[in-house]
Amino acid sequence: MRHGYFFAAVVAALLFGGSAAQARTAGDRWTYDFHAGISIGGVVPMPFPVEIREIRGYNPLFLPYLEADASYWFNSRWAISSGLRFEYKGMKTVARVKNYGMKIIGEDGSQMSGNWTGIVQTRVKSSFVSIPVVAVFRLSNTVDLKAGGFASFIMEKDFGGKVYDGYLREGSPVGDKIQFSDGAVAAYDFSSDIAAVHYGAQIGADWRFSQHLKLHGTLTWSLSDIFRDSFETITFDMYPVYASVGIGYAF
Amino acid sequence: MAAVCLASCIREEAANSEADILRCILPEEMMTGIAIDYYAPYSEEYNAYPIDIEVKKGSQLGSVALVLELTPGATVVPESGSVQNFTRRVRYTVTSEDGKWHRTYSIGLKYPSEAEIVTEYGFDNAKITKGYYVFTDTAPGKTEVVWASGNQGYSITAGNAAPEEYPTSMDSNGRTGNCLKMTTLTTGALGEKVGKPIAAGNIFMGRFEVLNALGDALSATKMGITFRHIPKKVTGWYKYSPGEKFYDDGYDNDLVDNGIIYAIFYETSTNLQYMTGHQANEGWIHPNMVAYAKADISARKDWTSFEMEFDYERYGKTIDMELLASGGYNIAIVMSSSIGGDKFKGAPGSTLWVDDMVLEYE
Questions:
Q1: Confidence band for B108, pLDDT divided at 50, 70 and 90
Q2: CB of A188 within 8 A of CB of A163?
């Protein structure tokens, strides 16, 4: 809820700030716009690991974003644009895995690591403040194409879930076998292992359908692992890949 | 979109990394039907994972073709079905399908023990196995009693805890010599998070199965060892110090902790080779139950004697003397530093000391 208020405050600031700024004069090289919408995607392991045997469920969750940008036009075709984006990235998945690196919270609350075979339910929802930097190409009077990169700074971390209908081999695939069946569930939580800073590439397009309003689409692709380098429980790297659509307002 | 990608991205399954013996198959005339524990903890004595199989008395052990069922794709040396001399233990090394992992087993065949179990428990001898105390009581010409405890489950997650920091340990200040000490412990912040904030010290006759230690924890406590007499009563000495604050879904109450010592005597069958925590939870109402004995344990600063008689009337069963002689009945003495420990109720710090216990029988 904290972030809900935060977003509301940013929206208000942008609206009032925007009305104060007014539209630019013809000779201005600076343009300003903001857009808001929703994102959909996932934290995707690449390459896809052999440990994941089946995806049983996927829920994209509700992931709002809000972005304010300033663009500097070198000429009538090219500009460079940057700004601030407040965004959520998340998903909920249910997967069947085999021999998957895992650190669970046992029934007595202590942690135990090993190789998990069975069901893993994962819930990811983190909020970021991101700084995109993109080159803008004006394709036509109504369409701008954008490509560049971004850096994201994490605000709220959540990466965890539960495991059930399976067993853990403690320490290695030939360690003690500890079974979770008949409704037995163990939790796991890797939130504190999420990296603080993420970076990646993004491409996007704007389509102006009226003087001030436009439809906006962006694909962001993280090039950095979602986890800190020192995190070794999950043996493969995972990268957030998200598509966003939103409505923008150009001043 | 992402879902479609994920579903289509599944790669071909990797070769198995596990290297288990899933089942041991002996010639039918040798089998007694007693369940085999395939996941017993690693034995430092044998330097391998032990599998003990009870075979019929008089079976020829000199050349036995033991057939092994393994993790799919795994291989074993010596080969499954090869003839081995089981007058001693035989080592088998299983290699996983992917060739990267090995698990070595020490398999022993033995006749059912006919020697009587030890019935005097001084708690003077305990060995440290995998970092915690395991109590054994021995006497000449008798089958030793090895006490099981939740320590084995605690050890899975205990990290580098010292033997004295486990819920069940040994204390040198016994009534005579050493004694048994059980303490209710807190399990830390993460334990509270999962609603399991305490671990009571406990000990029982039987075995603790790691396989179910964290999932179906009640099934992990398998209570009972063969007893060929009619038990009358259990006597012994105890001290009890309840912890300061009692946990019952929180610490906001005036409850005072109690310990418990009790014993069960029951008939075994193919379907029921052990009583577990599930039967304890159901108040020991089970068709195989024959007798129950209980001692209430409350605060005592000095060594205090207790005596608990087996109540047979409660179940109204007659004892089959032939079955009794052939090992068809089990006994288990069970103790805990918190009476509600199995339901995660009790006071951290509650400590029960027990010494010089005797099982009397007809």
A1: very high
A2: yes
